[in-house]
Design goal:
The chain folds into three domains: 14-128, Orthogonal Bundle (Arc Repressor Mutant, subunit A); 168-477, Acetamidase/Formamidase-like domains (Jelly Rolls); 503-585, Acetamidase/Formamidase-like domains (Endonuclease I-creI), CATH 3.10.28.20. A nine-stranded mixed sheet has the order 1-5-21-7-18-22-23-25-24. Strands 2, 4, 6, 15, 17, 19 and 20 form a seven-stranded mixed sheet that branches. Strands 8, 9, 10, 13 and 14 form a five-stranded antiparallel sheet that branches. Helix 1 crosses helix 2 (39-46), helix 2 (39-46) packs across helix 3 and helix 14 (528-545) packs across helix 15. It is of the alpha+beta class and 589 residues long. 46% of the residues are buried. The protein has 15 helices and 25 strands.
């Protein structure tokens, strides 16, 4: 597959140019089916000149026309190889990606890939007929889809004996399960309705799920070395990457050549977990019973806990630096003191991100692909940072999600109705989240563990720290939702001992709102104003339908007693949460 080399960031503007080119490629990706797509139209959409657009492509050794053609052919290859797309004719797929002439498409396809599209489809069909039903390779959900369609009962693929077994039977009460984190039991950077479940549980069961931070590679010695599960997930040599797909982008690297999945989606998620009898329209209640930090296994640091935060190019601050160098990305490594009488984190050191060469030889001038191991000799550590400052811990999971219904590969970064990357620190021990079920089995995944985070997550990340959570999962069937606070639920609803927390987004369901282009469109169209309106509308509805207030009463109470806060401004689909204290209704009839 054609790869474009990324020039190293020698000048202050190179990172900015890379970010602009990244945005341009996202614009192109959502308009590949437009036969009139041209450099001028793309440049106008991005507010730059056509000449500058062409220079950006020249800077990575390509040109606009070739890139468009390459992406359209790659997308056509993916559809022709996908068993779920066999109902579409070759000419229909060609037309979808801007090839109006079927004969021209066939010639171009054969020249690019060495075989005509019809032969590719025939080979894939023959391969599928001879392939075992269950695949041992992660990251190919179309095979999993075929597997799930062939069984009435969701199969458990690759689950460990511990994940399959339980400490109880149906006759003695709820069972307990354990799901370890390793390369066979995680999906990295995306959600999918087609992923085979790694465990199957019943309503009322408890499950312990190990989760890993995608930022453990910021200090591999402290957070990966000696840890078998982490080494399995992060394993990457010159000849093999244990978890190849990292993100919902193309499996074959496109314009940046960063790696499979392109990093459009970054979170390591353990699972998914299928819930017996769960069907679309039901509600899944996930209670967080416990959260335990994952200790270092390195001999020199054994028993200690570490985390990382990154002030990165996607942060809200990135264009607002006062001093140089501009721009810059800074990684801070923390030690976590969870057992202290006042649990806290203290900074150990920080460093400015420098261009890194991954084990496959690809240069990454910015923090643009998850899991790149940071070579200690390439960065300069700065000690005595945040000296004397103790950051109170707020352990929580940034990502708790059920599978979305719209697409097989959904970027893990923008949150939505299915949960996902909510990044709300209130999702800690003792909290509960209610999620609307959209696919059979619900397919629950957990990841993005955080030791601490402030509302807003302004610079890009929280203090990311691998953790293990224990959950109780309760299924509420569609026919039994009447009168419940989560009846007719269409968004993630959080409950704590004292509060109801409603989650508002710039785009409540960006996948439906923007259609096939949603996963790129949402990044370009988020705002706090839209998120605030969504939080307001959800709270108004909650107060009227659940608490029985009139509209005027609901609006009066919101202004007087409901706290609205910025959840995050870094996840593509920005968030505002609304907090309603349960004590307000202590004396209400």
């Amino acid at each position: 597959m054609h790869r474009l080399a990324v020039p190293s960031a020698e000048g202050p503007g190179s990172a900015t140019q890379a970010a602009i080119l990244h945005r341009i490629c996202q614009t192109i990706e959502r308009r590949l089916d437009d036969t009139a797509l041209s450099p001028l139209r793309v440049a106008q959409a991005e507010g730059i000149s056509e000449r500058y657009l062409q220079k950006l492509f020249e800077g990575v050794g390509d040109n606009f026309t070739h890139y468009i053609r390459e992406r359209r052919l790659q997308r056509a290859w993916a559809d022709l190889s996908n068993p779920a797309e066999t109902h579409r004719s070759i000419s229909e797929i060609a037309y979808t990606y801007g090839f109006a002439d079927a004969a021209h498409f066939s010639r171009s396809f054969r020249h690019r890939f060495g075989l005509p599209p019809r032969e590719l489809r025939q080979r894939q069909a023959e391969r599928g007929a001879t392939r075992p039903a269950a695949s041992s390779q992660r990251g190919w959900p179309q095979e999993a889809l075929a597997l799930l369609k062939g069984h009435d009962k969701l199969a458990v693929k690759g689950a460990s004996p511990c994940a399959r077994s339980s400490t109880a039977t149906a006759s003695t009460g709820p069972a307990h399960h354990h799901l370890a984190a390793d390369a066979e039991r995680v999906h990295w950077g995306y959600f999918s309705r087609s992923l085979p479940p790694q465990a199957e549980i019943a309503s009322g069961d408890t499950i312990t799920i190990e989760t890993l931070s995608q930022h453990a590679s910021d200090d591999p010695e402290r957070m990966i070395a000696g840890d078998g599960g982490a080494e399995s997930v992060f394993g990457w040599t010159a000849v093999k990457k244990n978890v190849d797909r990292r993100g919902a982008g193309p499996i074959d690297a496109s314009v940046f050549g960063r790696g499979a999945g392109e990093g459009f989606g970054v979170h390591i998620c353990t699972g998914p977990v299928a819930v017996k009898d769960a069907q679309p329209g039901d509600v899944l209640e996930v209670r967080i019973l416990d959260i335990v930090p994952r200790e270092s296994r390195h001999p020199q640091h054994k028993g200690r806990v570490f985390g990382s935060s990154v002030a990165a190019w996607w942060g809200y601050h990135y264009d607002e630096f006062l001093g140089g160098p501009k721009p810059r990305e800074v990684v801070t490594i923390y030690e976590i003191f969870a057992a202290d009488s006042e649990p806290h984190a203290c900074a150990l050191y920080s460093y400015r991100f420098e261009p890194q060469t991954d084990p496959f030889g690809v240069v990454h001038p910015t923090y643009d692909y998850p899991g790149i191991p940071i070579a200690p000799h390439t960065v300069k550590r700065r000690h005595a940072v945040l000296d004397g400052i103790r950051i109170p811990l707020r352990p929580h999971f940034g990502v708790i999600a059920v599978a979305p219904r719209e697409a097989d590969f959904v970027d893990s970064i923008p949150p939505s109705y299915f949960g996902g990357n909510l990044d709300n620190w209130r999702l800690g021990k003792g909290a509960t989240i209610y999620l609307p079920v959209s696919v059979p089995g619900a397919l629950l995944s957990v990841g993005d563990p955080h030791a601490a985070q402030g509302d807003g997550e302004l610079s890009g990340t929280a203090i990311e720290c691998s953790m293990t959570g224990t959950f109780q999962v309760i299924l509420h069937k569609k026919g039994n939702l009447s009168g419940q606070p989560f009846a007719d639920l269409s968004y993630p609803l959080i409950e704590t001992e004292t509060d109801w927390v409603l989650t508002g987004f710039s785009h409540p369901n960006y996948l439906a709102e923007f259609g096939a282009q949603g996963q790129s469109e949402v990044y370009a169209n988020s705002s706090l104003d839209l998120a605030m309106k969504d939080a307001f509308r959800k709270m108004r509805r909650f107060l009227m339908q659940v608490k029985g207030l009139s509209e005027d009463e609901a609006i009066a109470l919101m202004s007087a007693a409901v706290d609205f806060g910025v959840t995050q401004v870094v996840d593509g689909n920005w968030g505002v949460h609304a907090i309603l204290k349960k004590s307000l209704f202590r004396d209400a009839s």
